[in-house]
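Sequence, please.
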């Protein structure tokens, strides 16, 4: 469910002499789009990439869906979803498309062969920005009705799949809201609805106003900031994008709200090489536990500021404060085998039933001058197969071990059959 738009070119991009096709056409579009973005002052927020399928993704800002360009034999197809960006984002994409038309003589067509609008908001043809904002506000009303009518579902609105999901909040592009927030929206007047929509969407105004830059900063800190030192090129790019947004706001003389200023200061501190971790509140969903889908069977929730690592030895997460290693095994069982579980000798802790059918034990905590290490094994047994998860936690600090039980307790292994009770285990 979203607000989508699509356009077809009447011709392939114009080159120096001939029309360009295939990858060359998309590369030309990427360069021209980059020229437009540079003139807008988007800096590193603007990114382009070629996909494995041979399409071009043009990302105006890192907190909204990219525009997808496809080169066909005689035309270019462009499509985008703007509902997780807002009306200002939608208008900016159309402006970029018009720039491409002027430079490359594409001749965008925004209607299908029967004359129906391919832009759901009709903005691309009519340029009525007030009507575009109204379309986005109406879309928010529809989203809220879906949430109200389906309790317990739809608790992430206009966000990437799985981003910041919790039981207690409805998570939105600029941060979490309460269920009561959604419940009031269906009955709001048109004027109040627009006010609510202006606070929901990242890019509400036309153009890159101070309010737009503020929304982009808040959304980047909420969705993208890792709240730790950079461990990858993607982390470094995120730092550059946030720095650019802060610099743009400073150049405009726009003061930050207290919570946003506090978040910027905290992020600046945590980016340094330090074993400090963020406070588990405020702006930033990665400050909290984030669910990881490890395999088709296992899920695990961990602090979002841990950096994922995968190598020949298995998966893991790291941070200056800790290392958490993970290995998953699947062991076939003889159908005549009993249901008892023989725990490895080093796992001497009490058996814990995490949830029906999933049991765990921990080893003792081994300590040396460099820190401590503790292991846990989690077992799920199904007909003919036993699933094992082996976790290894290492840290020179105490607090990760204090939270280890909570991380273990978040583990799920869906579609379990009834299992023996802990009393059957040894």
């Amino acid at each position: 469910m979203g607000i989508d738009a699509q356009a077809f070119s009447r011709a392939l991009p114009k080159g120096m002499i001939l029309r360009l096709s295939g990858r060359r056409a998309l590369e030309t579009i990427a360069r021209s789009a980059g020229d437009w973005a540079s003139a807008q002052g988007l800096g590193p927020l603007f990114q382009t990439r070629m996909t494995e399928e041979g399409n071009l993704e043009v990302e105006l800002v890192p907190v909204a869906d990219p525009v997808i360009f496809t080169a066909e034999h005689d035309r270019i197809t462009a499509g985008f979803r703007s509902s997780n960006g807002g009306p200002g984002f939608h208008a900016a994409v159309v402006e970029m498309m018009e720039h491409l038309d002027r430079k490359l003589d594409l001749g965008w067509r925004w209607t299908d062969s029967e004359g129906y609008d391919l832009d759901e908001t009709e903005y691309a043809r009519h340029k009525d920005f007030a009507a575009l904002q109204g379309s986005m506000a109406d879309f928010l009303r529809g989203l809220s009705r879906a949430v109200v009518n389906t309790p317990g579902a739809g608790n992430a609105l206009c966000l990437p799949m799985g981003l910041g999901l919790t039981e207690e909040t409805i998570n939105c592009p600029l941060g979490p809201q309460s269920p009561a927030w959604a419940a009031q929206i269906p009955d709001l007047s048109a004027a109040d609805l627009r006010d609510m929509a202006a606070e929901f969407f990242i890019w509400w105004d036309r153009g890159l106003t101070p309010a737009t830059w503020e929304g982009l900063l808040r959304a980047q800190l909420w969705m993208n900031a890792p709240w730790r030192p950079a461990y990858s090129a993607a982390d470094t790019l995120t730092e550059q994008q946030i720095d650019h947004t802060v610099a743009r706001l400073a150049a405009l003389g726009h003061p930050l709200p207290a919570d946003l200023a506090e978040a910027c200061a905290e992020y600046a501190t945590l980016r340094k090489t330090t074993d400090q971790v963020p406070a588990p509140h405020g702006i930033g969903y990665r400050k909290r536990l984030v669910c990881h889908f490890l395999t088709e069977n296992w899920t695990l929730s961990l602090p979002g500021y841990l950096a994922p690592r995968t190598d020949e030895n298995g998966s893991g997460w790291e941070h200056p404060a800790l290392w958490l290693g993970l290995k998953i095994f699947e062991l076939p069982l003889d159908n005549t085998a009993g249901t008892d579980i023989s725990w490895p000798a080093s796992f001497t802790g009490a058996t814990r039933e995490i949830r029906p059918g999933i049991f765990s034990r921990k080893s003792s905590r081994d300590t040396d001058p460099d820190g401590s290490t503790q292991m846990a094994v989690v077992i799920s047994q199904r007909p003919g197969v036993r699933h094992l998860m082996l976790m290894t936690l290492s840290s020179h600090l105490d607090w990760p071990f204090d939270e280890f039980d909570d991380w273990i307790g978040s583990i799920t292994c869906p579609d379990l059959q009834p299992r023996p009770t802990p009393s059957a285990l040894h």
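Residues 416-426 have pLDDT under 50 and may be disordered.
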